[in-house]
C-alpha cells in the first residue's frame, strides 16, 4: 500500500535540509516542491498541491541556470490551477442551486 503521508513527510524533511544547506535558488528545492505537489494531489489536497506546483515553477524561474524542466513545472501548475478553478466553480454552482431551493 502506498503511504502518501509518509512520502509527504520525507519531502518536507528534505526541503528543510535543502533550506539549511543549499542556496535559495538551488533547483533541488523546486524538485521537492514539485514532488510535494504530486503527493498532495494524490491525497486530494488540491489547494496545497496547486500552491506547491506554483512554488516549484517560481523556484525554477529564479535559478541561475536555465532548467530543462521549467516547462513541465509550469504545465503542472497550469493544470492544477485549472482543476482547482473547475472544482471551485462546481462548488459555487451547487451552493447557488441549494440556496435557490431553500428559498
TrEMBL record:
Recorded superkingdom: Eukaryota
Cross-referenced InterPro entries: TPR-like_helical_dom_sf
UniProt cross-references to Pfam families, sorted A to Z: TPR_12
Name assigned to this protein: Uncharacterized protein
